Each structure stands twice: as structure tokens, then as C-alpha cells.
Amino acid sequence: MQTVRTPDDRFENLPGYPFAPHYAEVPDGDGGTLRVHYLDEGPPDAAPVLLLHGEPTWSYLYRHMVPVLVDAGHRVIVPDLVGFGRSDKPTETSDYTYARHVQWMTSLIFDELDLRDLTAFYQDWGGLIGLRLVAAEPDRFARVAVGNTGLPTGHGKPSEAFLAWQTFSQETEEFPVGFICNGGSTTDLPAEVIAAYDAPFPDDTYKAGARIFPALVPTSTDDPASADNVAAWEVLEQFERPFLVCFSDGDPITKGGDAIFRAKVPGAAGVSHTTIEGGGHFLQEDRGPELARVLVDFMAAT
User: Which domains does the chain have, with CATH numbers?
Assistant: First the structure.
């Protein structure tokens, strides 16, 4: 597996991102290893809060939330998925599969960091990957929160908004990551923030993972991930620990996706769910401190 690693100087002096990098080596699934980056902020002996990003962002997306959670006394772990941020980036789109993404995060979160008593918040592909981790080892999780995400099995028709995004990702000549992040936010992002989202990707050589991600979402039952997600749902349908649903009100991609979690996950019963008003797809960017306070209250109440 051929990889590239974004030069460190691309991450210098990014606005609102003063966090120290941490790294771990995980098996790449092809006989080698990958270096995976993560943030580790707050008291090391506190129960961990895991925040997983999605497409095509990186841990920078959580910069508004980390300080609020740390100030409330929590340890906060924020990985960069393989292919994103400061993590290594395989250069061929064929190197990326849904199963490999799950295994890479399993190796980091369970094997390398051995995180337990976890509170997790998942958005976008963070949910597609992270909910598989919950299904694999539910006893590691004290509670789970989701926003603007899902766990698709390929049953049912995807939204027109998602299909349009999927087509764009595979057919566009240029894949402008910062522009995409701006377009998925209700906030008009400053130029320096757009540049920060572009920072991990000096050129197209670094974008194989970002470009292929939408094509890895199961949209039919023939997809190789369909059966694994069906099996994961069978576990989630028995998950009784607190499960918070906090989607935003302004995301056409995942609109209505909150209902399946409320209906199917037992732990969602009796939890005070919330809608993050004024947030787009990237609700962490638009309403980060507010979302973090929702998580702090969720942890305090459960």
C-alpha cells in the first residue's frame, strides 16, 4: 500500500487549533502499518469522550467543542480518519473500503488506546464507522450521541441530495475540500478556515480517501457492507445505555434520519433529544459550543 503523509508545516498556525498532535501505528490491512493522528485533551484519568468526524473534514471540525468539553472536566479524543487530517493517506482509492475504515478505528480506539467507559459523538461518516464500533463492543460505551449521520444497510432509496453528492464526488474534475466544507455549513466560513480544511491535501495525490468516501456508502443490499450493517443494527436494537439524538435542522443530506435512531435504539427512550437550530450538515462548525454543551448536559444527566 502506497501512502503519503501531509507535511507538518501545513498544520502550523491554523486558526483556533492549538492542540498538540498524538500518533499511533495501526495495521493497514495489507501487511504494513499506518500512522494515525488523534487529539488527546483534558485530564488523562477522566472518562474519555470520543468525537469522530466524517467526509471530507478532519479533527479541525471539533475545535470549537474540545475546549468546552475539557473545561467541564472531560478527556477528549478526536482521531483523524485514515486519509484525512494528519493521518497517513493511501494514494489509491481501491485501498479504502468501509471494512478497512472500521478496522483502522478499531485498532486505534480499542487496541492502541484501549478506551473504555466511553461517551461517543458521531457525525457523517463518523457514525457509519463509529456505530459499527459500538455494535462490536457495546460494553466499552457508557453512552452514545449522534448528529447528522446514519447506518445505512442499502434497504430503501437514498435521498436525492445524497445521490447528487455521490455523483459529484466521483465525477468532478476538482475535489475542493474547503469549498465543500463551506457549502455544508450555514456559516459563511472565513478564508483562513476554508484554508485549514484544505491544509491536509496539498494536491490530488492526498485526496483518494476523501474522493472515494461517498461511493463507499451502502446504497443497495448488494453492497459488501450491507450485511455487516444489518448485523450492527441487530446489536443497536438491543443497546439500552443512554443514546442521544441531536441532528441539526438544516442538513438536506441526513434530514429525517434521526427518526430511525429514536425508534429503534432502546437507549433513546427517556433521553431528552434536541434539534440543533441553525446548523447545517457540519453542525460542529456552525453550532460547536452549543453542541458541546448539549453533550456536557447529556453526560451529567446520565
Answer: 3-301 (3.40.50.1820)
